[in-house]
Amino acid sequence: MLIPHATLARIQTGEVTLAFRRWDRPRVKAGTRLRTFIGLVEITSVEAVTLSKITAADAHQAGFATRAELLAFLKKEGNLYRIGVRFAGADPRIALREDAATDIGPVTAKVLKLPWAATFLRLIAEQPAVRAPDLAAQLGWETVPFKRNVRRLKELGLTESLPIGYQLSPRGQVILDALAGRGPADGLDGGGDVG
Fold first, then answer.
1. How far is CA 93 from the centre of its chain?
2. Count of other CB atoms within 10 angstroms of residue 82
3. DSSP 140
4. Among 177, 181, 178, which residue's Cα sits nearest to residue 105?
5. Which sequence spans correspond to the domains of the chain?
6. Domain 5-87 has CATH 3.10.310.10
7. pTM value?
8. What pLDDT score does 106 carry?
């Protein structure tokens, strides 16, 4: 579910607590937490509604000045859903990225199981803030699978997105340094080249 940046800021302050979308079927479920640039946004409810059930108060809670403005936004086809939203705190990956002191053995072991990971980490370290399509092309990868795999590294707290491209997190730099000097004799049976 895409939420405009201005609306996200208002969700964070508690000013916006509703969203309305037209979909063929619900695209989110109550309890889902979405990662956004402000942190986590939790979906608190999802219910099908009709236009006649939308009130002026609903429009204000969704960040619209008037009911008419909201209805104009909802002109496209599809089933109408009323979605409760709330700010649910900081993105936990931020704290993970900064945590370079915790035992890195388990994360290093995970990275060793991903044959492309060390190469991706080195490339991002050497070329921060470079567009994903340009990085992918250097490796002979298509952009979509390249970005998908960078997101896997991000889930481990190893990379972070910039307005353009990526950079290694402090944790990612520690892992890359460990990979540069690590071999099977260090207790991780990586076996052969990890790049």
1. 9
2. 18
3. T
4. 178
5. 5-87, 92-186
6. no
7. 0.59
8. 84
For residue 35 the two structure tokens come to 């990662």
Structure tokens at 18: 């509703």
Q: Which amino acid is at 182?
A: R
Q: Which two tokens stand for residue 119?
A: 């190469």
**What percentage of the chain reaches a pLDDT higher than 70?**
88
Distance from C-alpha of 159 to C-alpha of 152, rounded to nearest angstrom = 9
Please write the tens of the pLDDT for every residue from 66-75: 999 999 999 8
d(CA 119, CA 30): 38
The domain made up of 92-186 is a member of CATH 3.20.20.70? no
CA distance 83 to 20: 6
Tokens of 100: 């370079």
pLDDT at 192: 33
CA dist 21 → 64, 80, 184 (Å) = 13, 6, 52
148 token code pair: 């998908």
